Amino acid sequence: MISQYPPDILILVCLALAIFIISFIKIEWGLYLLIFSMLLSPELNISEATRASLGRGITLRFEDFLLVVIGLSWFAKNAVNKELGLFLKTPLNIAILFYVSICLLSTGVGIFAGRVAPKTGLLFVLKYIEYFIIFFMIVNHVKDKDQVKRLIFCLLLTCLITSIIGIIQIPGGGRTSAPFEGEIGEPNTLGGYLLFIGAIATGLIVKSENQRLKILLLILILIIVPAFLFTQSRSSYIGLIPTCFMFALFSKRRTIAVGLITVAFLLSPFLLPSQIKNRILYTFTQPERSDQVELGGLRLDTSTSARLISVKNILKNFPKHPIVGYGVGGYGFTDSQFPRILIETGIVGLIAFIYLLYSIFRMAINRMKEVKIPEFKGLALGFLVGFVGLFFHSLGANTFIIVRIMEPFWFLAGIIAVLPTLERQSQAQPRESASRTRKLALATPLSS
After folding, report:
1. Cα dihedral value 367, 135, 388, 221, nearest 10
2. DSSP 103-133
3. Mean pLDDT for the stretch of residues 413-428
4. 40: Cα within 13 Å, side-chain hemisphere
């Protein structure tokens, strides 16, 4: 092999083998690597031709490689130890299977009809499947409360590092973006990610009874805020509004909380930095150009206009393939989630996607009602509210297929899915320990 392959390939193979062995011995170690790589790994554009045809190229990043290796290790471990289980029963199994099946069907039809380039379509669908692999890996792996604490700590630490890197970018005058995003950053992606993780941290603050934990999480949120604001992502700002009001609705003093948040939003024009205000006003104050759209007497900026024109074209072309759509990657780039789902997978795909979102929402609501441990309840609340924020974020972005948002989202979805089981186990352990103590005491002869 040394004589046949270049050194970089050999190093990559050795690294893959090392990660495979580590994950096989203890998959939790592999999951720690995966968490940090979600936002802190470099990406490589592998297809300039795809950039020309879709508007953006397909990218592969280190965590894609890492996920494949850890996934293979997980499959191998399940093959050796069949008691582990591969796809445990969760409230999302049917919805996931339905959505994946429709994506594969529509893409397959698109490939045979010549609308979808096979490499492009299959790579996009595999990206979607990656998220569900993460979900099932977590569902199958997480076994106790302490594991959840360690995984959440790593997730929040990754967010802290990402936010600090974002803050360092602010003096440069540009929009903050996640690290290792190539020449052109994706502030919208960072905004959605910080919105979601910020909601998780806030949910823990609201429900936790640990004062030290609350202080640490509050510090994290104070670091997230400037990095979030200076993404200058209007979709993220839109998502922030329902996120804040959702927290208010779930608070004990609902009326007061809603009033305070309303006042805060009303005062925001006087408190926000000028760059943020100018970015919001730019939607309506951009100098006149030919490619702008007028809506209700207001002239919208070119970015917003492009989205509206894209939606209009989708509604015009959708009737050509209404049932299963053009296929994933078969239509072109569209920077809005629901129109993209509609044109790529048709009516059937849109129904499957909405059913998946509904299943996630229902699972989060049920988990929040079921669990009693404060930190678990806080996780469920934060996930639910963050999910609502991402729903509104998706009006101006492909939120539910963006890797850097969906990987942590499905990671946490897996934890939320098993919270009731973990709580029952944590409650059973003290009873078992007390029972063993009593048996030992009865078995021990009394001293004279």
Report:
1. 90
2. HHHHHHHHHHHTSS-HHHHHHHHHHHHHHHH
3. 88
4. 18
Crossing angle for the helix pair 403-417 and 145-169, to the nearest 10 degrees: 160
Please check the confidence at residue 444 and state whether its pLDDT lies above 60: no
Rounded to the nearest 10 degrees, what angle do helices 118-141 and 62-80 cross at?
A: 50
Residue whose C-alpha is closest to residue 301's, from 276, 277, 315, 281: 281
Q: What angle do CA 416, 402, 418 make, to 5 degrees?
A: 10
Tell me the DSSP string of 251-283.
SSSHHHHHHHHHHHHHHHHHHS-HHHHHHHHHH
The pair phi, psi for residue 284, each rounded to 5°, is -115, -10
Instruction: Judge whether 95 and 357 are in contact, CB under 8 Å.
Output: no
Q: What is the C-alpha to C-alpha distance for residues 321 and 324, in angstroms, rounded to an integer? A: 7
Question: How remote is the C-alpha of 259 from its chain's centroid?
Answer: 30
Please list the residues that pair with 59 across neighbouring strands: 45
Other Cβ atoms less than 10 A from the Cβ of 85: the count is 12
Strands 43-45 and 294-295 turn out to be unpaired
Q: Whole-prediction pTM value?
A: 0.88
Q: Between β-strands 43-45 and 59-61, what pairing exists: parallel, antiparallel or unpaired? A: antiparallel
SS3 state at 242: helix
Residue 48 clears pLDDT 60, i.e. is over it = no
Considering only CA atoms, which of 10, 35, 103, 28 is closest in space to residue 410? 35
E strand or H helix that includes residue 12:
helix 7-25
Q: How confident is the model at residue 55 (pLDDT cuts 50, 70, 90)?
A: very low
Q: What are phi and psi of 391, to 5 degrees?
A: -60, -45
Can you give 342-377 as a three-state secondary structure string? Answer: HHHHHHHHHHHHHHHHHHHHHHHHHHHHHCCCHHHH
Three-state DSSP class for 87?
A: coil
Residue in 183, 92, 36 with CA at minimum distance from that of residue 410: 92
**Three-class secondary structure of residue 293 per DSSP:** coil
Write down the domain spans for the chain.
14-436
How many CB atoms are located within 10 Å of the residue 422 CB?
A: 20
Q: Are 11 and 37 in contact (CB under 8 A)?
A: no
Rounded CA separation 71/86 (Å): 11
Residue 226 near residue 235 (C-beta atoms within 8 A): no
| 3 state DSSP class of 286 | coil
Per-residue pLDDT, 159: 94
299 within 8 A of 324, measured Cβ to Cβ: no
| pLDDT the model gives residue 448 | 38
Q: 303, 309 in Cβ contact below 8 A? A: no
Counting every residue, how long is the chain? 448
Q: State residue 144's pLDDT score.
A: 87
